[in-house]
Amino acid sequence: MAKRNLNLNIIPVEEALEKYFSALEGFLLPKFEKVPAEESLNRITSSAVYARLNSPHYNAAAMDGIAVRAAATTGALETNPLTLEEGKDFIPVNTGDPVHAPYDAVIMAEDLIQDNDRQNVIITKSASIMQHIRPIGENIAAGEMIISGKHKIRPIDIGVIISGGVTHIDVYTKPKIAIFPTGSELIDISRLQDEEIPKEGAIIESNSRMYEAQVKQAGAEGTRFAPVPDDFEKLKNAISKAAQNFDMVLINAGSSAGTEDFTVQVLREIGEVIIHGVAVRPGKPVILAIVNNKPVIGTPGYPVSAWLSFVTFAAPVLSVLTGSALKPAQKIEAVLTEQIVSSPKHREYVRVKLENENGKLTASPLARHSGAAMSLLKADGFCVIDLGCELLEAGEIVQIELIQEV
Questions:
Q1: Closest C-alpha among 265, 221, 215, 270 to residue 244
Q2: Domains of the chain (ranges, CATH numbers)
Q3: pLDDT digits (tens, 9 = 90+) for 46-69
């Protein structure tokens, strides 16, 4: 019988993260690149962006109408209209046109009365200096900071950056993440014919597709590989090669104590296992390792364990590599509808459904098995039961962590 991985060292989540990041110090280094401003949507700035030009970079008409010398319009009233001659007292302008000396004000077309002589106009109100003129730098001043570092570029940011004369900006390079599903029993959905039912014992692989999406949401580029069978040498070769060519490696399944769970053995041979086993349910047998100075994380195969392991351990690592800030957990209070018994040796994340009952928010526990992916899909949040707590009573007010995107 193959050797089982029974020596999991169970430690609290915070301690596991602290040890892992301490081991990664000096290795977990983001990369940077320049990208065209118009192609920067959703990228994270690695440094502040400063305007190169004023916007506008000339005094510009803010309205359609005529440019005049303000002093020449003094005294214009409805009871004392003034007639202005084109070319002498004014020039026609459209919105955005430059306004040069001697002209220093714009009168809107709506405020003009056409004289019988089409070359002239009549005004009934005097103009003030710089009236309806956008001065140089009104929108953006050259040298002004447009956006700060570690800022996720939005569509409006692109418009302002370009208005400031900036053509390229410095951003975090999207880290490249290798994603390996493992297990001889796994099959790709793409290999099933229409209406074909998998053979008994075969499992449609889905976690890696979930990881692909989570990695993309985190601002990285994921490359998902075909399932690696339960073969020590094949898994070793796959991870070794990936650790050479990628910034991070995610390995799903094979992290527990099964006779064909080789992940931790492989990682110990080709790298260093910092953590194997964390005091959390679901997700206890997670592996935090380093291979070729790259972070390598092994996650359990059950879908809920896989999801929670990514959010808890992979997301913080990706946050450093991508420059994106982790979203703090949003918490609300709710009344528990059922009693929950838990092991005091673990922090447990119990999926709950929230409902408003007569103005009172209630939290109903859902299926707790880590393979119950539908319960995660239906859940609104988690009732987090901390280490040392064995029981929560029905009717108790509890804190609920809302489920949110990475």
A1: 270
A2: 13-31+174-322 (3.40.980.10), 34-55+140-172 (3.90.105.10), 60-134 (2.170.190.11), 331-402 (2.40.340.10)
A3: 999 999 999 999 999 999 999 999
